[in-house]
Sequence to fold (461 residues):
Amino acid sequence: MEKSLRDRILVVDDERDIRTMLKIMLEKEGYTVETASGGLEALGKISQAFYPLVISDIKMPDLSGLDLLKEIQEKSPRSIVILITAYASNETAIEGMKHGAYDYITKPFQNDEIKVVIRNALEHQLLKEENLELKKKLTSSIEGLGIVGSSKPMRQLMDLIVRVSKTRTPILITGESGVGKEIIAKTIHHLQNPASPFVPVNCGGIPETLLESELFGYKRGAFTGATTDKAGLFETANGGILFLDEVGELPIPLQVKLLRVLQDQTFRRLGDNRDIRVDVQIISATNRNLEKEIAGKRFREDLFFRLNVLRIHVPPLRERKEDIPLLLEYFIRKFAEKYHSKPIKISSYILKELENYDFPGNVRELENMVERAVALQDSNIILPDVYKSQTIESIDTVALPFHTCEFPERGVNLPAILEEVEKAYLTEALNRCQGKKVDAANLLNMSFRSFRYKLEKHGLE
Ligand SMILES: Nc1ncnc2c1ncn2[C@@H]1O[C@H](COP(=O)(O)OP(=O)(O)OP(=O)(O)O)[C@@H](O)[C@H]1O
Ligand SMILES: [Mg+2]
Fold:
Protein backbone atom coordinates (compact mmCIF):
# COMPACT_ATOMS: atom_id res chain seq x y z
CA MET A 1 0.00 0.00 0.00
CA GLU A 2 1.12 3.54 -0.65
CA LYS A 3 2.54 5.36 2.30
CA SER A 4 -0.02 8.15 2.14
CA LEU A 5 -2.83 5.64 2.34
CA ARG A 6 -1.18 3.72 5.10
CA ASP A 7 -0.98 6.66 7.43
CA ARG A 8 -4.51 8.02 7.16
CA ILE A 9 -6.29 8.42 10.45
CA LEU A 10 -9.91 9.30 11.07
CA VAL A 11 -10.56 11.01 14.41
CA VAL A 12 -14.15 10.82 15.63
CA ASP A 13 -15.30 12.86 18.61
CA ASP A 14 -18.27 15.12 19.29
CA GLU A 15 -16.05 17.53 21.23
CA ARG A 16 -14.42 19.91 18.86
CA ASP A 17 -11.46 20.68 21.11
CA ILE A 18 -10.50 17.09 21.30
CA ARG A 19 -10.78 16.62 17.54
CA THR A 20 -8.62 19.63 16.90
CA MET A 21 -6.07 18.73 19.50
CA LEU A 22 -5.64 15.20 18.19
CA LYS A 23 -5.50 16.42 14.60
CA ILE A 24 -2.74 18.90 15.34
CA MET A 25 -0.76 16.46 17.41
CA LEU A 26 -0.99 13.63 14.89
CA GLU A 27 -0.28 15.82 11.89
CA LYS A 28 2.88 16.91 13.61
CA GLU A 29 3.83 13.24 13.70
CA GLY A 30 3.41 13.07 9.94
CA TYR A 31 0.02 11.39 9.70
CA THR A 32 -2.80 12.49 7.43
CA VAL A 33 -5.73 13.21 9.70
CA GLU A 34 -9.41 13.73 8.99
CA THR A 35 -12.07 14.31 11.56
CA ALA A 36 -15.75 13.58 12.05
CA SER A 37 -17.99 15.06 14.69
CA GLY A 38 -19.99 11.91 15.28
CA GLY A 39 -20.49 8.28 14.43
CA LEU A 40 -22.78 8.88 11.47
CA GLU A 41 -20.47 11.37 9.83
CA ALA A 42 -17.64 8.92 10.39
CA LEU A 43 -19.59 6.15 8.67
CA GLY A 44 -20.12 8.43 5.70
CA LYS A 45 -16.39 9.04 5.42
CA ILE A 46 -15.56 5.40 5.79
CA SER A 47 -17.85 4.49 2.93
CA GLN A 48 -15.96 6.99 0.73
CA ALA A 49 -12.37 6.11 1.57
CA PHE A 50 -10.22 3.59 3.40
CA TYR A 51 -8.83 4.56 6.78
CA PRO A 52 -6.39 2.06 8.22
CA LEU A 53 -6.94 3.60 11.65
CA VAL A 54 -10.00 5.13 13.26
CA ILE A 55 -9.76 6.76 16.67
CA SER A 56 -13.20 7.19 18.17
CA ASP A 57 -14.71 8.53 21.33
CA ILE A 58 -17.04 6.08 23.03
CA LYS A 59 -19.73 8.47 24.23
CA MET A 60 -21.26 10.36 21.35
CA PRO A 61 -24.84 11.50 20.93
CA ASP A 62 -25.71 10.04 17.54
CA LEU A 63 -23.91 6.71 17.44
CA SER A 64 -21.81 5.33 20.28
CA GLY A 65 -18.19 4.36 19.72
CA LEU A 66 -19.08 0.72 20.30
CA ASP A 67 -21.77 0.81 17.63
CA LEU A 68 -19.43 2.59 15.27
CA LEU A 69 -16.89 -0.16 15.96
CA LYS A 70 -19.41 -2.80 14.95
CA GLU A 71 -20.31 -0.93 11.76
CA ILE A 72 -16.65 -0.52 10.85
CA GLN A 73 -16.06 -4.23 11.31
CA GLU A 74 -18.86 -4.93 8.87
CA LYS A 75 -18.10 -2.26 6.33
CA SER A 76 -14.35 -1.82 6.57
CA PRO A 77 -12.96 -4.93 8.24
CA ARG A 78 -9.38 -3.99 7.43
CA SER A 79 -9.53 -0.81 9.52
CA ILE A 80 -8.40 -0.88 13.11
CA VAL A 81 -10.23 1.04 15.80
CA ILE A 82 -8.86 2.69 18.92
CA LEU A 83 -11.40 3.94 21.44
CA ILE A 84 -11.19 7.08 23.51
CA THR A 85 -12.63 6.83 26.95
CA ALA A 86 -12.93 8.91 30.07
CA TYR A 87 -11.27 7.20 33.01
CA ALA A 88 -14.54 6.44 34.72
CA SER A 89 -16.02 4.41 31.90
CA ASN A 90 -13.09 2.07 31.40
CA GLU A 91 -15.37 -0.93 31.60
CA THR A 92 -16.85 0.02 28.23
CA ALA A 93 -13.38 0.29 26.76
CA ILE A 94 -12.60 -3.26 27.83
CA GLU A 95 -15.92 -4.30 26.34
CA GLY A 96 -14.80 -2.59 23.13
CA MET A 97 -11.53 -4.51 23.12
CA LYS A 98 -13.42 -7.75 23.46
CA HIS A 99 -15.46 -6.76 20.47
CA GLY A 100 -12.46 -6.08 18.37
CA ALA A 101 -11.12 -2.64 19.19
CA TYR A 102 -7.34 -2.68 18.96
CA ASP A 103 -6.74 -0.63 22.08
CA TYR A 104 -8.08 2.30 24.03
CA ILE A 105 -6.70 5.61 25.23
CA THR A 106 -7.97 7.46 28.26
CA LYS A 107 -8.82 11.10 28.70
CA PRO A 108 -7.11 13.31 29.75
CA PHE A 109 -4.55 12.35 27.11
CA GLN A 110 -0.96 11.55 27.72
CA ASN A 111 0.53 12.51 24.41
CA ASP A 112 3.48 10.16 24.53
CA GLU A 113 1.27 7.23 25.29
CA ILE A 114 -1.04 8.08 22.41
CA LYS A 115 1.84 8.31 19.98
CA VAL A 116 3.09 4.87 20.96
CA VAL A 117 -0.35 3.32 20.80
CA ILE A 118 -0.97 4.78 17.36
CA ARG A 119 2.38 3.82 15.97
CA ASN A 120 1.86 0.25 17.20
CA ALA A 121 -1.64 0.17 15.80
CA LEU A 122 -0.54 1.21 12.35
CA GLU A 123 2.37 -1.19 12.39
CA HIS A 124 -0.03 -3.91 13.40
CA GLN A 125 -2.35 -2.96 10.58
CA LEU A 126 0.47 -3.03 8.05
CA LEU A 127 1.55 -6.42 9.32
CA LYS A 128 -1.97 -7.68 8.97
CA GLU A 129 -2.06 -6.52 5.36
CA GLU A 130 1.31 -8.11 4.67
CA ASN A 131 0.19 -11.36 6.29
CA LEU A 132 -2.84 -11.38 4.07
CA GLU A 133 -0.65 -11.00 1.01
CA LEU A 134 1.73 -13.65 2.22
CA LYS A 135 -1.11 -15.97 3.00
CA LYS A 136 -2.51 -15.61 -0.47
CA LYS A 137 0.84 -16.79 -1.75
CA LEU A 138 1.09 -19.67 0.69
CA THR A 139 -2.43 -20.96 0.53
CA SER A 140 -1.93 -23.18 -2.44
CA SER A 141 1.08 -24.99 -1.09
CA ILE A 142 -0.02 -25.34 2.50
CA GLU A 143 -3.75 -25.33 2.74
CA GLY A 144 -4.05 -27.51 -0.30
CA LEU A 145 -2.61 -30.19 1.94
CA GLY A 146 -4.93 -29.41 4.84
CA ILE A 147 -2.01 -28.48 7.02
CA VAL A 148 -1.93 -24.89 8.14
CA GLY A 149 1.10 -23.14 9.53
CA SER A 150 3.56 -20.40 8.72
CA SER A 151 5.98 -20.71 11.62
CA LYS A 152 9.51 -21.75 10.85
CA PRO A 153 9.12 -25.23 12.36
CA MET A 154 5.95 -25.78 10.35
CA ARG A 155 7.52 -24.65 7.09
CA GLN A 156 10.44 -27.00 7.71
CA LEU A 157 7.95 -29.73 8.48
CA MET A 158 6.13 -29.09 5.21
CA ASP A 159 9.38 -29.41 3.29
CA LEU A 160 10.17 -32.62 5.08
CA ILE A 161 6.72 -34.03 4.37
CA VAL A 162 7.07 -33.35 0.67
CA ARG A 163 10.49 -34.98 0.63
CA VAL A 164 9.58 -38.12 2.59
CA SER A 165 6.47 -38.67 0.51
CA LYS A 166 8.75 -39.66 -2.33
CA THR A 167 9.95 -42.75 -0.47
CA ARG A 168 8.34 -45.89 0.93
CA THR A 169 10.63 -46.23 3.95
CA PRO A 170 9.07 -46.51 7.39
CA ILE A 171 8.31 -43.17 9.04
CA LEU A 172 7.83 -42.46 12.72
CA ILE A 173 5.83 -39.37 13.63
CA THR A 174 6.22 -38.15 17.18
CA GLY A 175 4.67 -35.31 19.14
CA GLU A 176 2.21 -34.53 21.90
CA SER A 177 -1.45 -35.32 21.63
CA GLY A 178 -3.33 -33.13 19.19
CA VAL A 179 -0.31 -31.68 17.33
CA GLY A 180 -1.40 -33.13 14.00
CA LYS A 181 0.37 -36.47 13.65
CA GLU A 182 -2.51 -38.17 11.90
CA ILE A 183 -3.15 -35.33 9.50
CA ILE A 184 0.53 -35.48 8.53
CA ALA A 185 0.32 -39.21 7.83
CA LYS A 186 -2.73 -38.60 5.67
CA THR A 187 -0.96 -35.81 3.84
CA ILE A 188 1.98 -38.06 3.02
CA HIS A 189 -0.48 -40.58 1.66
CA HIS A 190 -2.20 -37.91 -0.37
CA LEU A 191 1.07 -36.69 -1.87
CA GLN A 192 2.22 -40.19 -2.60
CA ASN A 193 -0.81 -41.72 -4.23
CA PRO A 194 -4.31 -40.77 -3.12
CA ALA A 195 -5.76 -43.73 -4.97
CA SER A 196 -3.78 -46.25 -2.93
CA PRO A 197 -5.14 -47.58 0.38
CA PHE A 198 -4.53 -45.72 3.64
CA VAL A 199 -5.32 -48.03 6.53
CA PRO A 200 -5.24 -46.60 10.05
CA VAL A 201 -4.96 -48.93 13.04
CA ASN A 202 -5.23 -47.78 16.61
CA CYS A 203 -2.72 -49.94 18.45
CA GLY A 204 -3.93 -48.75 21.82
CA GLY A 205 -7.65 -49.24 21.47
CA ILE A 206 -7.98 -52.92 20.63
CA PRO A 207 -7.36 -56.00 22.86
CA GLU A 208 -4.17 -57.84 21.99
CA THR A 209 -5.65 -61.01 20.44
CA LEU A 210 -8.16 -59.08 18.43
CA LEU A 211 -5.49 -56.69 17.20
CA GLU A 212 -3.39 -59.62 16.06
CA SER A 213 -6.19 -61.12 13.96
CA GLU A 214 -7.08 -57.66 12.66
CA LEU A 215 -3.54 -57.03 11.49
CA PHE A 216 -2.69 -60.42 10.04
CA GLY A 217 -6.07 -61.96 9.30
CA TYR A 218 -6.87 -65.61 9.90
CA LYS A 219 -7.70 -68.91 8.25
CA ARG A 220 -11.03 -70.50 8.75
CA GLY A 221 -10.96 -72.63 11.92
CA ALA A 222 -7.90 -70.86 13.37
CA PHE A 223 -9.88 -70.21 16.54
CA THR A 224 -13.47 -70.58 17.69
CA GLY A 225 -15.52 -68.10 15.78
CA ALA A 226 -13.22 -68.06 12.76
CA THR A 227 -15.85 -69.40 10.41
CA THR A 228 -14.35 -68.01 7.20
CA ASP A 229 -10.96 -66.96 5.92
CA LYS A 230 -10.29 -63.30 6.59
CA ALA A 231 -7.67 -60.96 5.20
CA GLY A 232 -5.84 -58.78 7.71
CA LEU A 233 -5.16 -55.06 7.51
CA PHE A 234 -1.69 -55.74 6.15
CA GLU A 235 -3.30 -57.18 3.07
CA THR A 236 -5.87 -54.43 2.88
CA ALA A 237 -3.03 -51.89 2.91
CA ASN A 238 -1.14 -53.60 0.11
CA GLY A 239 0.27 -51.00 -2.26
CA GLY A 240 -0.43 -48.24 0.22
CA ILE A 241 0.16 -47.18 3.79
CA LEU A 242 -0.55 -48.88 7.10
CA PHE A 243 -0.80 -46.18 9.73
CA LEU A 244 0.02 -47.58 13.17
CA ASP A 245 -1.38 -44.97 15.51
CA GLU A 246 -0.33 -44.99 19.19
CA VAL A 247 2.34 -47.52 18.28
CA GLY A 248 3.89 -47.03 21.73
CA GLU A 249 0.97 -48.96 23.15
CA LEU A 250 1.53 -52.06 21.06
CA PRO A 251 1.80 -55.11 23.40
CA ILE A 252 5.26 -56.74 23.44
CA PRO A 253 4.19 -60.04 21.77
CA LEU A 254 2.75 -58.09 18.85
CA GLN A 255 5.87 -55.96 18.69
CA VAL A 256 7.79 -59.19 18.06
CA LYS A 257 5.42 -60.21 15.28
CA LEU A 258 5.46 -56.80 13.68
CA LEU A 259 9.23 -56.83 13.71
CA ARG A 260 9.22 -60.10 11.85
CA VAL A 261 6.98 -58.71 9.14
CA LEU A 262 9.20 -55.70 8.75
CA GLN A 263 12.29 -57.87 8.48
CA ASP A 264 10.93 -60.46 6.07
CA GLN A 265 8.33 -58.42 4.24
CA THR A 266 6.13 -61.50 4.60
CA PHE A 267 3.66 -62.78 7.16
CA ARG A 268 1.06 -65.50 7.66
CA ARG A 269 -2.59 -65.36 8.49
CA LEU A 270 -3.36 -66.91 11.89
CA GLY A 271 -3.69 -70.66 11.53
CA ASP A 272 -2.24 -70.62 8.04
CA ASN A 273 1.16 -71.80 6.83
CA ARG A 274 1.19 -69.87 3.60
CA ASP A 275 3.54 -66.86 3.44
CA ILE A 276 1.97 -63.68 2.15
CA ARG A 277 4.12 -61.00 0.64
CA VAL A 278 2.86 -57.41 0.65
CA ASP A 279 4.13 -54.00 -0.32
CA VAL A 280 3.09 -51.85 2.61
CA GLN A 281 4.66 -48.68 3.89
CA ILE A 282 4.53 -48.38 7.65
CA ILE A 283 3.92 -44.96 9.12
CA SER A 284 3.66 -45.07 12.86
CA ALA A 285 2.81 -42.36 15.37
CA THR A 286 3.12 -41.98 19.09
CA ASN A 287 2.88 -39.32 21.76
CA ARG A 288 5.04 -41.40 24.06
CA ASN A 289 8.76 -40.99 24.34
CA LEU A 290 9.85 -44.26 22.79
CA GLU A 291 13.45 -43.90 23.95
CA LYS A 292 12.09 -43.86 27.51
CA GLU A 293 9.76 -46.76 26.77
CA ILE A 294 12.78 -48.73 25.55
CA ALA A 295 14.72 -47.92 28.70
CA GLY A 296 11.70 -49.11 30.71
CA LYS A 297 11.59 -52.34 28.65
CA ARG A 298 8.11 -51.55 27.39
CA PHE A 299 9.19 -51.15 23.80
CA ARG A 300 11.60 -53.27 21.82
CA GLU A 301 14.64 -51.45 20.63
CA ASP A 302 14.97 -53.56 17.47
CA LEU A 303 11.44 -52.67 16.43
CA PHE A 304 12.10 -49.03 17.19
CA PHE A 305 15.02 -49.00 14.77
CA ARG A 306 12.85 -50.52 12.07
CA LEU A 307 10.07 -47.97 12.55
CA ASN A 308 12.27 -44.95 13.09
CA VAL A 309 14.03 -44.92 9.74
CA LEU A 310 12.70 -41.45 9.01
CA ARG A 311 11.53 -39.32 11.89
CA ILE A 312 9.05 -36.47 11.80
CA HIS A 313 8.73 -34.64 15.07
CA VAL A 314 5.83 -32.22 15.40
CA PRO A 315 6.47 -29.49 17.96
CA PRO A 316 3.68 -28.54 20.40
CA LEU A 317 1.58 -25.50 19.53
CA ARG A 318 3.04 -23.48 22.40
CA GLU A 319 6.42 -23.62 20.66
CA ARG A 320 5.02 -22.19 17.42
CA LYS A 321 2.53 -19.60 18.53
CA GLU A 322 2.94 -17.72 15.24
CA ASP A 323 0.68 -20.40 13.78
CA ILE A 324 -2.23 -19.47 16.04
CA PRO A 325 -3.69 -16.62 13.93
CA LEU A 326 -3.58 -18.67 10.75
CA LEU A 327 -5.05 -21.74 12.39
CA LEU A 328 -7.75 -19.57 13.93
CA GLU A 329 -8.77 -18.20 10.59
CA TYR A 330 -8.63 -21.61 8.99
CA PHE A 331 -10.85 -23.21 11.61
CA ILE A 332 -13.26 -20.27 11.66
CA ARG A 333 -13.77 -20.68 7.94
CA LYS A 334 -14.00 -24.44 8.21
CA PHE A 335 -16.68 -24.36 10.89
CA ALA A 336 -18.58 -21.45 9.41
CA GLU A 337 -18.96 -23.66 6.36
CA LYS A 338 -19.94 -26.66 8.43
CA TYR A 339 -22.59 -24.74 10.39
CA HIS A 340 -23.65 -22.58 7.45
CA SER A 341 -23.04 -19.56 9.63
CA LYS A 342 -21.16 -16.30 9.48
CA PRO A 343 -17.46 -16.51 10.28
CA ILE A 344 -16.89 -14.94 13.69
CA LYS A 345 -14.32 -12.17 14.21
CA ILE A 346 -11.58 -12.60 16.74
CA SER A 347 -10.43 -9.36 18.34
CA SER A 348 -6.76 -8.65 18.82
CA TYR A 349 -7.50 -8.65 22.54
CA ILE A 350 -8.62 -12.27 22.46
CA LEU A 351 -5.86 -13.18 20.05
CA LYS A 352 -3.34 -11.89 22.57
CA GLU A 353 -5.00 -13.92 25.29
CA LEU A 354 -4.81 -16.99 23.09
CA GLU A 355 -1.18 -16.36 22.38
CA ASN A 356 -0.54 -16.28 26.11
CA TYR A 357 -2.18 -19.64 26.55
CA ASP A 358 -0.21 -22.87 26.56
CA PHE A 359 -2.65 -25.17 24.74
CA PRO A 360 -1.94 -28.44 26.52
CA GLY A 361 -4.30 -30.07 24.00
CA ASN A 362 -2.44 -28.42 21.10
CA VAL A 363 -4.15 -27.81 17.75
CA ARG A 364 -7.07 -30.06 18.63
CA GLU A 365 -7.85 -27.89 21.65
CA LEU A 366 -7.76 -24.74 19.54
CA GLU A 367 -9.93 -26.40 16.93
CA ASN A 368 -12.51 -27.38 19.55
CA MET A 369 -12.56 -23.87 20.98
CA VAL A 370 -13.23 -22.42 17.56
CA GLU A 371 -15.88 -24.96 16.73
CA ARG A 372 -17.75 -24.07 19.89
CA ALA A 373 -17.39 -20.36 19.30
CA VAL A 374 -18.60 -20.59 15.71
CA ALA A 375 -21.48 -22.87 16.63
CA LEU A 376 -22.57 -20.42 19.32
CA GLN A 377 -21.70 -17.39 17.16
CA ASP A 378 -19.86 -15.97 20.15
CA SER A 379 -16.40 -14.64 19.50
CA ASN A 380 -15.96 -14.07 23.19
CA ILE A 381 -16.16 -17.60 24.38
CA ILE A 382 -12.68 -18.61 23.42
CA LEU A 383 -10.97 -16.74 26.22
CA PRO A 384 -8.37 -19.10 27.63
CA ASP A 385 -9.25 -17.71 31.07
CA VAL A 386 -12.48 -19.59 30.72
CA TYR A 387 -10.57 -22.72 29.86
CA LYS A 388 -8.05 -22.23 32.60
CA SER A 389 -10.80 -22.06 35.15
CA GLN A 390 -12.21 -25.29 33.80
CA THR A 391 -8.96 -27.17 33.84
CA ILE A 392 -7.26 -25.81 36.94
CA GLU A 393 -9.97 -26.90 39.28
CA SER A 394 -7.93 -26.71 42.41
CA ILE A 395 -7.36 -22.98 42.15
CA ASP A 396 -10.33 -21.63 40.35
CA THR A 397 -12.81 -21.23 43.13
CA VAL A 398 -11.52 -21.41 46.66
CA ALA A 399 -14.12 -21.37 49.37
CA LEU A 400 -15.54 -17.96 50.05
CA PRO A 401 -13.55 -16.12 52.63
CA PHE A 402 -16.63 -15.99 54.85
CA HIS A 403 -17.88 -18.92 56.85
CA THR A 404 -21.45 -17.76 56.80
CA CYS A 405 -23.22 -15.24 54.68
CA GLU A 406 -24.22 -12.33 56.81
CA PHE A 407 -27.54 -11.39 55.35
CA PRO A 408 -29.59 -8.86 57.28
CA GLU A 409 -33.35 -8.58 56.76
CA ARG A 410 -33.08 -5.26 54.92
CA GLY A 411 -30.74 -6.82 52.34
CA VAL A 412 -27.10 -6.27 51.45
CA ASN A 413 -25.15 -4.18 48.97
CA LEU A 414 -23.71 -7.09 46.98
CA PRO A 415 -21.85 -4.98 44.38
CA ALA A 416 -20.05 -3.15 47.17
CA ILE A 417 -19.18 -6.41 48.92
CA LEU A 418 -17.79 -7.89 45.71
CA GLU A 419 -15.71 -4.78 45.14
CA GLU A 420 -14.26 -5.15 48.64
CA VAL A 421 -13.48 -8.82 48.11
CA GLU A 422 -11.88 -8.05 44.75
CA LYS A 423 -9.75 -5.32 46.25
CA ALA A 424 -8.62 -7.58 49.09
CA TYR A 425 -7.54 -10.31 46.64
CA LEU A 426 -5.74 -7.87 44.38
CA THR A 427 -3.83 -6.44 47.31
CA GLU A 428 -2.92 -9.85 48.65
CA ALA A 429 -1.79 -11.08 45.22
CA LEU A 430 0.44 -8.04 44.78
CA ASN A 431 1.94 -8.58 48.22
CA ARG A 432 2.70 -12.19 47.54
CA CYS A 433 4.37 -11.34 44.24
CA GLN A 434 6.38 -8.45 45.66
CA GLY A 435 4.40 -6.08 43.49
CA LYS A 436 5.14 -7.90 40.21
CA LYS A 437 1.90 -7.36 38.31
CA VAL A 438 2.34 -10.06 35.70
CA ASP A 439 2.86 -12.69 38.41
CA ALA A 440 0.00 -11.35 40.48
CA ALA A 441 -2.34 -11.48 37.49
CA ASN A 442 -1.32 -15.11 36.90
CA LEU A 443 -1.92 -15.94 40.52
CA LEU A 444 -5.43 -14.61 40.18
CA ASN A 445 -5.97 -16.41 36.89
CA MET A 446 -6.62 -13.10 35.18
CA SER A 447 -5.30 -11.56 32.01
CA PHE A 448 -2.70 -8.90 32.61
CA ARG A 449 -4.85 -6.33 30.92
CA SER A 450 -7.92 -6.84 33.10
CA PHE A 451 -5.71 -7.06 36.17
CA ARG A 452 -4.20 -3.67 35.35
CA TYR A 453 -7.63 -2.27 34.73
CA LYS A 454 -8.89 -3.51 38.09
CA LEU A 455 -5.86 -2.05 39.87
CA GLU A 456 -6.67 1.30 38.35
CA LYS A 457 -10.29 0.93 39.32
CA HIS A 458 -9.43 0.35 42.95
CA GLY A 459 -6.75 3.02 43.01
CA LEU A 460 -4.11 0.42 43.83
CA GLU A 461 -1.49 1.58 41.34
N1 LIG B 1 -1.32 -27.79 11.10
C1 LIG B 1 -2.62 -28.10 11.12
N2 LIG B 1 -3.46 -27.50 10.23
C2 LIG B 1 -4.79 -27.78 10.25
N3 LIG B 1 -5.36 -28.63 11.10
C3 LIG B 1 -4.58 -29.25 12.00
C4 LIG B 1 -3.17 -29.02 12.06
N4 LIG B 1 -2.66 -29.76 13.05
C5 LIG B 1 -3.69 -30.42 13.59
N5 LIG B 1 -4.85 -30.14 12.98
C6 LIG B 1 -6.19 -30.65 13.34
O1 LIG B 1 -6.18 -30.86 14.74
C7 LIG B 1 -6.83 -32.07 15.08
C8 LIG B 1 -5.86 -32.98 15.77
O2 LIG B 1 -4.89 -33.44 14.86
P1 LIG B 1 -4.45 -34.97 14.76
O3 LIG B 1 -5.60 -35.88 15.02
O4 LIG B 1 -3.69 -35.15 13.51
O5 LIG B 1 -3.48 -34.99 16.04
P2 LIG B 1 -2.62 -36.18 16.65
O6 LIG B 1 -1.25 -35.66 16.81
O7 LIG B 1 -2.82 -37.42 15.85
O8 LIG B 1 -3.28 -36.33 18.09
P3 LIG B 1 -3.34 -37.63 19.05
O9 LIG B 1 -1.93 -37.91 19.51
O10 LIG B 1 -4.20 -37.16 20.19
O11 LIG B 1 -3.95 -38.73 18.24
C9 LIG B 1 -7.36 -32.64 13.78
O12 LIG B 1 -8.69 -32.27 13.60
C10 LIG B 1 -6.48 -32.00 12.72
O13 LIG B 1 -7.15 -31.88 11.52
MG1 LIG C 1 -3.82 -39.17 16.36
